[in-house]
Amino acid sequence: MKKLIKGGTIVTAADIYKGDILIEDERITAIGAQLQSSDAEVIDAEGLYVFPGGIDPHTHLDMPFGGTTTKDDFETGTIAAAFGGTTTVIDFCLTSKGAPLSDAVQTWHAKSKDRAVIDYSFHLMISETNDEVLAELPEIIEKEGITSLKVFMAYKNVFQADDGTLYRTLLSAKKHGALVMVHAENGDVIDYLITEALAEGNTDPIYHARTRPPELEGEATGRAAKLAALADSQLYVVHVTCEQAVRQIAEARSKGFRVYGETCPQYLVLDESYLEKPDFEGAKYVWSPPLRKPENQDVLWNALKSGELQTVGSDQCSFDFKGQKELGRGDFSKIPNGGPTIEDRFTILYSEGVRKGRLSLNQFVDVIATQSAKLFGLFPRKGTIAVGSDADLVLFDPNAERTISVANHHLAVDYSAFEGMKVTGEPVSVLSRGQFVIRDKQFVGKAGSGQYLRRNRFAASEPPAPESRTISASR
Ligand code: URP
Ligand code: ZN
Ligand code: ZN
Ligand code: ZN
Questions:
Q1: Rounded to the nearest whole angstrom, what is the distance from the C-alpha of residue 317 to the centroid of ligand 1?
Q2: Measuring from each residue's beta carbon to the nearest atom of ligand 1, which residues come in under 6 Å?
Q3: Which of 286, 287, 292, 319 to mutate to test the pocket of ligand 1 (most atoms within 8 A of CB)?
Q4: Contact call for residues 268 and 297 (beta carbons, < 8 A)
Q5: Is the pLDDT of residue 465 over 80?
């Protein structure tokens, strides 16, 4: 079945132009002015932007954490993502010490199979680098196409790995063409500060922020960047929140090291004061790293604009206020960390970024889709609008106005992190590999229609010689 999207304004990370897009089956087969096709369904995109589908490089769907499990899973989470203009998510596959990596990957396949409504892939957590793990890793990278590895430098006694583990992971990633991702906070010092705060009777949500100061994010970011440089490897710092961390990434990049950074919508538009909301409502805003003082927001926007930070991930990780966040009443350290962000990432970046003049349209597409496709081995199959690319497209009304609210979102969780925020711009229709998932703001997709994506190896910084270059993700 063919589709012809007519009259839209096509926006990629490089171009803006009016044109028509012909889709045959799953892919874009022609782009041009006044395209004709006798047997295609014509979709009118006059007055709309046509963006590549958003790529969310950072989600936690159906993830156990702090004695509970995220409210949103691969079905509700990807439906909400699609409503918000995202057509690919890369979720974090958690591993357990002492168990084969492949067990964890199979667990994540079981969580997502027959549930996701858009395409998805996995990053793999590494918490130890013993002989078994190092032996298994190349096979996982090859067979599963999992070309990004995650190391936590925080969450002591839960996920945290030591520096030796990070360093060996960086070495292995260099050898096998993977990108190492870090949650960069100094977990040992945070652990001490939490113990001290609780001993002094400081149990409210605001102490989550006070025990995780930005210096400890900057310190860990700098340490990870230096280890990446020493290993001559590549590093991606997830959820960057503050000036101290941005500075470390910028410094490493200015020296030519392959260090990349991601921020998230919550750090761009919310601040630490939300943690002080009365009646324990501050718990809704507990993320790690925490929300920061407002002056960090300009630093993050400027870093996205200048290219010091490359991507925006949602860090979707939702827990109900009732029954889940409440586990931390009387002890902020027991509040499950994370919030619902997958649906609003795309529109917040457009509304607060493009409409407010902080990002150009091309920069918006770059940070919301293209850079993630390049860094995580999906480009040019995903992340752009080109002949041969998957027809993952967002038809976007740039003038629609609405108010974000739990009353109209599509997640299962019982609150919105951005309640009451007025935004301009909204996805009208969203296609995943040529099929409508959202049509005229209605969900028309199907659980299980999302495909697992095997990704190419890391090659974003310097393209290898032409003969060895792979130009599309394996299908
Ligand atoms: O608070 C957060 N960010 N929760 C999700 C887990 C993580 O650290 O990314
Ligand atoms: Zn598999
Ligand atoms: Zn994290
Ligand atoms: Zn996360």
A1: 7
A2: 60, 183, 239, 287-288, 315, 317, 337-338
A3: 287
A4: yes
A5: no
**Token pair in block for residue 101:** 């990596």
Task: Specify the fold of 53-375.
Answer: TIM Barrel (3.20.20)
Phi, psi of 32 (to 5 degrees): 180, 180
Contacts of 73 (CB under 8 A, 6+ apart): 61, 62, 111, 115, 412
Instruction: Look at the chain and count its residues.
Output: 475
Provide, for the chain, the percentages of residues in helix, strand and coil under a 3-state DSSP scheme, each rounded to the nearest 5.
35, 25, 45
**Prior bond to 398 cis, omega within 30?**
no
pTM of the model: 0.96
Residue 288 in contact with residue 212, Cβ under 8 Å? Answer: yes
CB 243 within 8 A of CB 299: yes
- In this predicted model, what pLDDT tens digit does every residue of 95-122 receive, in sequence order? 999 999 999 999 999 999 999 999 999 9
Q: What is the pLDDT of residue 312?
A: 99
d(CA 130, CA 124): 16
Return the amino acid letter for 129. Answer: T
SS3 362: helix
Residue nearest to atom 5 of ligand 1 (CA): 338
Beta bridge partners of 452: 120
Torsion angle of C-alpha atoms 317, 318, 324, 327, degrees rounded to 10: 40
- Does ipTM top 0.90? yes
97 burial class (0-12, 13-18, 19+ CB within 10 angstroms)?
exposed
Q: What distance in Å separates the CA atoms of residue 46 and residue 475, rounded to the nearest whole number?
A: 32
User: Is 389 in contact with 398 (CB distance < 8 Å)?
Assistant: no
Q: How far is the CA of 315 from the centre of ligand 4 (A)?
A: 4
* AA identity, residue 440: D
CA 25/CA 390 separation, integer angstroms = 9
φ, ψ for residue 216 (rounded to 5)?
-80, -20
Domain ranges of the chain: 2-51+384-443, 53-375
Q: Could you read off the pLDDT of 121-133 as tens digits, one per residue? A: 999 999 999 999 9
Test site for ligand 1: of 60, 90, 238, most ligand atoms within 8 A of the Cβ: 60
Q: What angle do CA 273, 80, 358 make, to 5 degrees?
A: 50
Q: What pLDDT digit, counting tens, does each position of 312-339 carry?
A: 999 999 999 999 999 999 999 999 999 9
Mean pLDDT of 157-175: 98
Q: Tell me: the pLDDT tens digits for 192-238?
A: 999 999 999 999 999 999 999 999 999 999 999 999 999 999 999 99
Sheet of 119-125: strands edge to edge?
54-59, 86-93, 119-125, 148-152, 179-183, 235-237, 259-263, 311-312
Fold observed for domain 2-51+384-443: Urease, subunit C; domain 1 (2.30.40)
Beta-carbon count within 10 A of 420 CB: 8
